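Quick one: structure tokens for this chain, please?
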Amino acid sequence: MVVRKFVLAMFAVLLAVGVSFGAEPIRVGQISTYTGDFAAYGIAERYSGQIAVEEINAAGGILGRPIELIWYDCRTNAEDMVMAATRLVEQDNVVAIIGPSGSGLHIAASPVITAAQIPHIGTLPTNPLVTRDEDGNVRPFNFRLCFLDPYQGRMIAYFAANNLRLMKAGVLYDVASDYSHGLREFFLESFAEFGGEVVADEGFRGEMDVDFGAQLTNIRDSGADVLIFPFMGRALPMAVRQARDLGLDMPIVGGDGYGDFMWEVTGDALGNSYWVSHVDRDDPTLADFFRKYEETTGTECQEFMNAVLAYDAFFWLKDAIERAGEPDPLKIRDALAATENLQLMHTVLTMDEFHNPKDKDGVILRCDPATQSAVFHMRIRPE
């Protein structure tokens, strides 16, 4: 491995409120995109993970032992992700790793995870290759809490065709992103099945492009009546703003890349847009968590999908270790795979044979310029 000249951000925190310091801690790793293009998502995951660990330790820890949380920032970079995973398994001796959200980051680190035989839980990595290899075999130590891109792409197509009744789609996607490439592919397949037609299919390179004028002009001239934006990160609000500036005032439908940070760039341009979500922010069962998040961080929980799934990932791991009877990575892996009807904060979790959640409903959010937030629109489970 090429060693880059940088200092990898790392914190090791023993959060042992209410737990005897005489008990040997259980070392758990967390990786988040604290900086880089996905920073908004990673900051939320970092804070919510810390909240979860504090709560677990205050309640007695796991098997009477506190969690020692070791955290790295992978800076939304695949090479940094691999380095963080390598340090966690080779130097820090963690029993499991949680996060981050990016599919490409998980795929990049998978060889390290598999070789070390350390279970890795993804928060929002939706690409199928996160938990299955190119031959369709399950990756034995990779798990996730979110539904997958094939399901998400189908939700976007179903919503556009069957709920909005819009049948001519203009697609803008990030050719450099595993997430975006996969989500686009599954949308195209399902939209045709539902009778829709893709009249424009335009790509950009997220690490380089900030001007989408040429692609959006082609979409405008194609006669599209709905815009499909299957990407995420800083490019997303820029594309929304530029689309509206070019007079593309039709509905925008996108995946789970929505974040409240987008309003700062778009202003009211986010109106008439709809986004797939894993979480309904208005669900009353989440209110206590959002209140604690604000009390702990001094900020409102904006990237709520990432925050909620990161929080629940720690409690899923806690349950698996307790069922395993000891913090042994192989036994934890087996317990994660055997998870059935586990009540977490945002869902009841059951794993399928490929380490993915079974039968999770999706949520469609609608952006409301009056409140500058995304509000619940409908639950969805496409045919």
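Residues 1-8, 12-21 have pLDDT under 50 and may be disordered.
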